[in-house]
C-alpha cells in the first residue's frame, strides 16, 4: 500500500536551511517589534466561521478554507441546499469552523473578547500562518506567514512616525539597503475626489490612479472618463500627474490642488507632521516617499497608507504595507477603537535577501563539530567531551555507528560541519583530542579546554 | 451586525504573558535540540488526506480535521454516499485535505519525498501545532503544539543514550528537578509474553500490565485471565509484580524470568548498554528508571520505549515520551529506515512550571521604559533618546498622546513597566532625562549615557 508522497499544491515543506533562513527574518522582525514595545499574542488557527465570513468581501469568503464538521455532519445539513446540491448554500450547515485568512480580523476579535484584560493603547504583534484557497503561482502560496504589528486605542500620529522607524530598523538589521517606504493618506484621496467632483466615485477614481505607473497618464485618464468622471474634473488633476521632486515640494503642489477641500488639507497636515518628525529623527537605510497614487485596501484605511518597495534592482512587488483604520473592532460591536498597523511580507523579503545574497553565512551553521566513532569505548569517551562542549553552548554530536572512517568524514563534509574530532586509543590514554579543521585540512592534538576555546 | 466574539471549543487565545512563557519553554527545547545536532524542518499545516488517513487507526481517522474542497465541491460528491446521506463515505469525495494530526507521519512523508536531498542519519526536530477533533477537557485541546526530535537511518543504541541526555538537558535548563525518565523495551514485553505462552496476546497482556500502578496486582491478574492468558502463565509472572530495587537488580530478575527467550534477552542487553552508558555519563536532574509495565504506542515501537513523569509533587500525567520504531517510512514505500525519537508535552510542562513557580521573573519583562508624553516638542526630543536606547537593545516606548500625567503613570503601572522617563522644558534645555524607578519610587536626573547604562 505504498503511496507516492506529495503535499497539497500551494503548500511547502521547509528544509533545515530554509527554516534557518526564515527564522533569521522572523527573529529580526520579532526583535524590532519588541524593542518598539509591541507584545506578542497568538490566536487559534481556526475561528468560528461567522467570525471570518463576510469580513473580506465575496472573493475573500470564497478563498477561506472551511473545516468539515466532525461525526455525522450530514445529519444537520440544510435540507433545501442538500436537495438542490447547492454547494455554496450547504457549506454553513456542514462546516462551523474556518482557517484564519489574515491576522487583522482575529486580532479585532481578540481585542473585543479580551477588552477587560487589555490595557489600552494596546501594542500587539502577531507572527502566524494564514491560509487562502488562492490559485497558487510564483511567490503566492496557500499557506504563508504574516508578521503584523498594530496599535489600537490611540489616534496619535506618533504611531505612524514609530511605524516608519520600525520599518527602517528592521531593514537596517537585515542589511537591506535602498528600501522605499511610500506613504499616502486616505484623506488626500478623498480630497482629490471631492475637488474634481467625484466623491461618489472615490473607488473608481483611486483604482484608475493606482495604475499610473503601469499604464501611463493617457490610459488612466481614459479609464476615469469611462467610469463617468468628468473631463473638467480630470483637467483639474493635471498637476497631480506631474507631481515630482521632494516630499515638501509635492506637498506644496497638493496644497494648491486641495485648497478647497477640508478633508484634503487635513490629510496634508497629517503627512506634514509625520514627514517633519521623520526628518528630525532620521532614517538609516530606508527612504520615505510621498505617493499620491497609493491606495491599497482603500475601503479599510481611513488615514495614513503605507507600502514598502524592495530596492529597485530587485523586481518584486511590495514587501510590506499597512495604514490607519478608524474602526477596527466595530464589526464585533466595539466602537471608536482607532487602529494603525503594518505588516511584513516574509516570503518576498526572503526572496529579496536570497537574490541580493544578504543572508549571513552563519545562518547555515548547524553542527560545529562531529566526533568520529571508532567503537563503543571511544564513543563513550567522546560523549563525555561532547557533554562538556554542549554545556558550553557548542552544537556537537557523535557519529552514531563505528562506520568506516571515510563514510563518517563524507557525512561531515556533506553536512558542512566545519570541525571533526578523532578519538582513538592514544587520545583516550593521553586525554587529548585530535581536532581536524575541515576547511583548512589541518589537524591538531588538543586538550578538552583547548577544544572548547577553539570551537567557541 | 455586531457579533459576540468567541473562539471554537478546544482552542485558545494566548495573551502576551502566555506567549512569553510558552516561548521560554519552546526556546529552551529548541536550544537543546540544536546543541545535540538536530536540525529543524517544517511541514504544511494540511496534508493530502491519503497521507494521513489510515495511519492512526479508526479512532484517529475520526479525529482528523478534514478541509472542505473549495468551489462547487458537491459536483464531485460520491453519488451513492450522497443519496444515502452517508457522512463517513461522502467525506473523501468532498474533502481532499486534512489538518496535521501529529508530526511523525508528516515527518515520514517528508523523509520519503526528500530522500535524495537528505544526508542520513538524519537528525530532525520539529515544533509545530497539530489538530485533533478530540473532546476537549482539562489539559486536552483541539489545537496544541508538539515538540519532536527524531533520528532516522541509524539503529545505533547511542541514539537512545543521547535522547536520555537530551531530556535531562532540557529539564535542567528549565530548572525542573525530580523528573523520572522511565524506560522499557518492546523486546522485553514480547519476551515475557513468549515465556508465559501468550505471544499472540501481546497487546491484551501489555494493556493489562500497564494498569498495574492504577488497579493493583490482583485486578491485573483477573484481567489477564479474562483475556485468555493461562493461570500457569500468570504464575510465571509473579517475580514481575514484585520487581523493585535498582535498575541493575531489576535487570537481574528479568534475566531469570526471560532466560529462555532470545528476544527478551536481546531487550535486556539493549537496556543494559543504555544504562551503563548513562551511569558513566551521569544525569544532572533526571533519574532513569526501568519500568517493565511501560507499553505506550506498542504497535508502533520495536525497541526502546520512553516516558517522562513530572516530579511526584505535581499530579499530572507524562510530560514526554518516545521510542524506537524500525519501520518509520514503510507506509510510504521506503523500507528499512530505523527511527528513534522523543517528544515534549508543551502544555503539561507549562502547567508543571506554573505550579512549581519555575518561570523566570524576567519572562514577564516586556517594555523596560516608558517616556511620558508632555506634548509634541517633548515627544520628539524623547523619541530621539528612545531611538538610541532601542539601538542599545533596550525595549522602550513613548506614551502616544500628551494625556494627563496620572493616566500615563497608571498605564506604566498596569503594564509592569519598571522605569519611566520624564522630559519637560527643563530637561530639553539641559539635555537631561528624569528617570523614575517605578518599584522604588525614586527618581534621578541623568544624561543619555547614564540612562543607557542604568537600563541595560
TrEMBL record, chains A, B:
Its EC number is 6.1.1.21. Keywords: Aminoacyl-tRNA synthetase, ATP-binding, Cytoplasm, Ligase, Nucleotide-binding, Protein biosynthesis. Its main location: cytoplasm. GO terms for cellular component: cytoplasm. Pfam families: HGTP_anticodon, tRNA-synt_His. It is found in: Cytoplasm. L-histidine binds at residues 102-104, 132, 146, 150, 296, 300-301. PROSITE patterns: AA_TRNA_LIGASE_II (PS50862). The keyword Plastid does not apply. InterPro entries: aa-tRNA-synth_II, aa-tRNA-synth_II/BPL/LPL, Anticodon-bd, Anticodon-bd_dom_sf, His-tRNA-ligase, HisRS-like_core, HisRS/HisZ, HisRS_anticodon. It catalyses: tRNA(His) + L-histidine + ATP = L-histidyl-tRNA(His) + AMP + diphosphate + H(+). One of its GO terms (biological process) is histidyl-tRNA aminoacylation. Residues 1-400 form the Aminoacyl-transfer RNA synthetases class-II family profile domain. One of its GO terms (molecular function) is histidine-tRNA ligase activity. Belongs to the class-II aminoacyl-tRNA synthetase family. Homodimer. This is Histidine--tRNA ligase. It comes from Seonamhaeicola aphaedonensis.
Amino acid at each position: 500500500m505504498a503511496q507516492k508522497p506529495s503535499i497539497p499544491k500551494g503548500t511547502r515543506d521547509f528544509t533545515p536551511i530554509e527554516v534557518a533562513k526564515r527564522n533569521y527574518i522572523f527573529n529580526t522582525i520579532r526583535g524590532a517589534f519588541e524593542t518598539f514595545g509591541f507584545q506578542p499574542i497568538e490566536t487559534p488557527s481556526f475561528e468560528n466561521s461567522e467570525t471570518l465570513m463576510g469580513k473580506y468581501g465575496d472573493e475573500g469568503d470564497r478563498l477561506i478554507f472551511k473545516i468539515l464538521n466532525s461525526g455525522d455532519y450530514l445529519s444537520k445539513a440544510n435540507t433545501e441546499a442538500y436537495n438542490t446540491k447547492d454547494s455554496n448554500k450547504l457549506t454553513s450547515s456542514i462546516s462551523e469552523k474556518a482557517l484564519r485568512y489574515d491576522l487583522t480580523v482575529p486580532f479585532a476579535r481578540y481585542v473585543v473578547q479580551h477588552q477587560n484584560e487589555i490595557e489600552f493603547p494596546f501594542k500587539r504583534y502577531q507572527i502566524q500562518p494564514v491560509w487562502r484557497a488562492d490559485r497558487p503561482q510564483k511567490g503566492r502560496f496557500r499557506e504563508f506567514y504574516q508578521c503584523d504589528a498594530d496599535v489600537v486605542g490611540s489616534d496619535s500620529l506618533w504611531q505612524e512616525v514609530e511605524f516608519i522607524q520600525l520599518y527602517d530598523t528592521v531593514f537596517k538589521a537585515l542589511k537591506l539597503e535602498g528600501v522605499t517606504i511610500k506613504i499616502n493618506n486616505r484623506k488626500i484621496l478623498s480630497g482629490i475626489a471631492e475637488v474634481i467632483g467625484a466623491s461618489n466615485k472615490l473607488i473608481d477614481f483611486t483604482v484608475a490612479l493606482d495604475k499610473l505607473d503601469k499604464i501611463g497618464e493617457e490610459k488612466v485618464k481614459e479609464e476615469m472618463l469611462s467610469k463617468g468622471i468628468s473631463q473638467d474634473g480630470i483637467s483639474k488633476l493635471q498637476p497631480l500627474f506631474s507631481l515630482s521632486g521632494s516630499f515638501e515640494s509635492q506637498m506644496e503642489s497638493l496644497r494648491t490642488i486641495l485648497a478647497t477641500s477640508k478633508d484634503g488639507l487635513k490629510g496634508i497636515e497629517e503627512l506634514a507632521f509625520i514627514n517633519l518628525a521623520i526628518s528630525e529623527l532620521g532614517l538609516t537605510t530606508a527612504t520615505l516617499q510621498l505617493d499620491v497614487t497609493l491606495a491599497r485596501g482603500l475601503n479599510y484605511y481611513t488615514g495614513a497608507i503605507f507600502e514598502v518597495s524592495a530596492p529597485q534592482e530587485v523586481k518584486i512587488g511590495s514587501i510590506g504595507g499597512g495604514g490607519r483604520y478608524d474602526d477596527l473592532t466595530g464589526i464585533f460591536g466595539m466602537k471608536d477603537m482607532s487602529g494603525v498597523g503594518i505588516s511584513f511580507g516574509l516570503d518576498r523579503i526572503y526572496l529579496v535577501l536570497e537574490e541580493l545574497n544578504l543572508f549571513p553565512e552563519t545562518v547555515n551553521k548547524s553542527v560545529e563539530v562531529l566526533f568520529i566513532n571508532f567503537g563503543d569505548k571511544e564513543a563513550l569517551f567522546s560523549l563525555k567531551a561532547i557533554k562538556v562542549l554542549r554545556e558550553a553552548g557548542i552544537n556537537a554530536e557523535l557519529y552514531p555507528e563505528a562506520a568506516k572512517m571515510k563514510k563518517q568524514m563524507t557525512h561531515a563534509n556533506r553536512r558542512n560541519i566545519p570541525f571533526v574530532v578523532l578519538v582513538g586509543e592514544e587520545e583516550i590514554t593521553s586525554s587529548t583530542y585530535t581536532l581536524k579543521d575541515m576547511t583548512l585540512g589541518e589537524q591538531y592534538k588538543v586538550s578538552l579546554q583547548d577544544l572548547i576555546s577553539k570551537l567557541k
